[in-house]
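In this section we walk through a basic example: taking a raw amino acid sequence and producing a predicted 3D structure, encoded as discrete structure tokens. The instruction is simple. Fold the sequence below.
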Amino acid sequence: MRILLIVAIVALSVLVSCRVVAQPRTCADRSVVTQWLADNHAESVIAAGITARGALMELYSTQSGNTWTITLSSAGPDAIACQVGYGHGWKFIDPPPATSPEQRLDP
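The resulting token sequence is shown next.
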């Protein structure tokens, strides 16, 4: 049973990584990328965060969630943004309420 579980996890990891590699990585000035996503897909930033290495990760989506895009940007006023993923069918999910200060996502 344990071996079957390990094989399933490895197979799923390979499938997921192959799917991500198949998407082209496009990079440009962050302001250009943001404007292009707004003009061509009606997407705007709905979530953002700083990665462990200091890059800005942003999730763009339409209001309906029909399409979405994830970008990583360098820091600074001349930031370069790279598209690292995109797709369709984004679903907004409300996080469960925090029951204690330790469970809150906000610092």
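Looking at the output, two observations stand out. The first helix runs from residue 2 to 21. Strands lie at 27-29, 44-50, 56-61, 67-73, 80-88. In the next section we compare this with other chains.
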